[in-house]
Design goal:
The protein has 23 helices and two strands. The protein has 483 residues and is an all-alpha fold. Strands 1-2 form a two-stranded antiparallel sheet. Strand 1 and strand 2 form a beta hairpin. Helix 11 packs across helix 14. The longest helix is centred in the middle third of the chain and has 25 residues.
């Protein structure tokens, strides 16, 4: 591996992540939280200086392109180092006295899992809460995608890292160069951010609440600055806005570029978008019918809560507008199934992704047809074209690895003496980056009760899930370390 080039790339990303703490310092000044300024300033300056020394020591390199092996190792290193640095403000401020808890909270933030160890969120300083949600915003579209835009200035190849971090089975390029694609993705990301912030301000939220809620929504993360999440605002207007933008954030960002270019044909033919929309509508209607028929809520209230919770779970955002644990078993079963879904590939959503379900579904029907006509030749079509021949084995491998990790995680969590529902729900929540679940990790609970060793393991699992499994798991194969 090209260690010096890897160190150079990591140093650039550390400077970006550390610099992202600066807005929190401004909020500390605004809210007169003067004691919080050193908690941000000390790690920010120290990390930038250390990263600058690393960068300067590696500035003269013969090779400036990363190999596939370098790409996987670099991405894993960046996410781990970013989390280690991002956890420092929580720890040295005393808001989270345990570094294990601080690391868990930060990893949950960067991976947009939304699993929190905090029980009294509102007691934390506002500046620290802003940084907590900023980890969502940085991790939502991807730390690497953010940095790729500046890599041409450094002469560093970046396609290998994009492939290692991408959300979905394939990488879609909008522009001929990957750096152009990265810039457009961030432009779309920020456009959604601005639009939602304005809408929430019109719903009479404060600028701080509007910004932090927006950062969690467009990143499909789920951290809230309120103990009761979105339910704390008791505002149908806020719930509707957040529901709409959770749905929009779960759509492939490439389609927004097609919309801007008025290429409506691509959008009309997009199978994943159709299935994504259908799953949301059908699950919402079934949940609404269940809540209304059993006299839990009036029809419109049931529709509001059902649509909010179904898209929040489906896109792995993890917000809640009502405690869904006491709801009928039928609605909870729908939410459980949605925890295996995910949004579209190329979105900020985590989990399996809709396109993988579509391909597996179509391939399964082809196998049924082949039983009747063994000599017939069938092909899987998507968006009017044929899918790549390597995509189906890749997806089957992903599903296999995904469910193996679920079993391993549930068994590992069970060593702490936790009940079966909590163990299984924790596995689904962390592998799929969903956030809240059922049992001990329900929407009104936290992950703080887990033992320290379980929290470190769940950090590893959250990172593995965020990087689409293969990027992390490949590091544990003997082949990876062979020359």
């Amino acid at each position: 591996m090209n260690i010096r080039l890897i160190l150079k790339v990591v140093s650039v990303l550390l400077m970006i992540v550390s610099g992202a703490q600066s807005p929190s310092i401004l909020w500390a000044l605004y809210y007169h939280e003067n004691n919080m300024i050193p908690a941000f300033l000390i790690p920010e300056i120290s990390t930038i200086l250390l990263a600058l020394l690393m960068f300067l020591s590696c500035r003269n390199l013969k090779s400036k392109s990363l190999s596939a092996k370098d790409g996987f190792f670099t991405v894993a290193s960046i996410w781990f180092c970013a989390t280690a640095v991002g956890a420092i403000p929580f720890y040295i401020s005393g808001a989270i006295p345990s570094y294990t808890d601080a690391f868990f909270e930060t990893m949950s933030g960067f991976t947009t899992t939304g699993a929190s160890i905090l029980t009294d969120i509102e007691s934390l300083p506002k500046s620290l809460l802003f940084w907590r949600n900023m980890t969502h915003y940085l991790g939502g579209l991807g730390i690497i995608v953010l940095a790729v835009a500046v890599f041409p200035l450094l002469g560093i190849g970046s396609m290998r890292m994009i492939k290692a971090e991408t959300t979905g089975p394939t990488v879609q390029k909008i522009m001929p160069k990957i750096t152009g694609t990265a810039k457009i993705l961030w432009l779309i990301y920020m456009s959604l951010t601005i639009c939602e912030t304005i809408c929430l301000l019109l719903c009479k939220l404060s600028l701080f609440d509007a910004l932090t809620t927006t950062m969690s929504t467009v990143a499909t993360g789920g951290f809230s600055v309120r103990n009761a999440s979105i339910a704390a605002y008791a505002s149908p207007c806020v719930e509707i806005v957040v529901t709409v933008f959770m749905f929009l954030s779960g759509i492939n960002f490439v389609l927004y570029f097609s919309l801007a270019m008025r290429n409506f044909g691509i959008i009309r033919r997009n199978t994943e978008l159709k299935v994504y929309t259908a799953i949301f509508i059908i699950s919402t209607l079934m949940m609404t019918a269940s809540l209304f028929r059993q006299n839990i809520y009036p029809f419109l209230t049931a529709l509001r809560y059902a649509s909010f919770q179904s898209i929040a779970i489906m896109t792995t955002t993890g917000f809640y507008s009502a405690n869904y644990i006491p709801w009928p078993a039928f609605t909870n079963l729908i939410l459980l199934l949605l925890m295996f879904c995910g949004g579209c590939s190329g979105s900020t959503s985590g989990n399996i992704k809709v396109i993988r379900h579509v391909v597996i579904w179509k391939h399964s029907f082809i196998q049924l047809k082949k039983m009747m006509r063994p000599n017939a030749v069938y092909s899987i079509k998507k968006d009017g074209g044929l899918i790549g021949k390597d995509l189906v084995p890749n997806i089957y491998g992903f599903f296999t690895l995904y469910f193996i990790l679920l079993v391993i995680t549930a068994m590992f969590v069970s060593t702490g003496g936790h009940d079966l529902v909590t163990c299984i729900s924790t596995a689904i929540s962390t592998v799929g980056n969903v956030g809240p679940g059922f049992g001990g990790i329900g929407p009104v609970n936290s992950f703080g009760f887990f033992q320290g060793y379980i929290k470190w393991f769940l950090c590893f699992i959250m990172l593995t899930g965020r990087l689409e499994l293969y990027t992390i798991m490949i590091l544990f194969t003997p082949t990876f370390w062979k020359r």
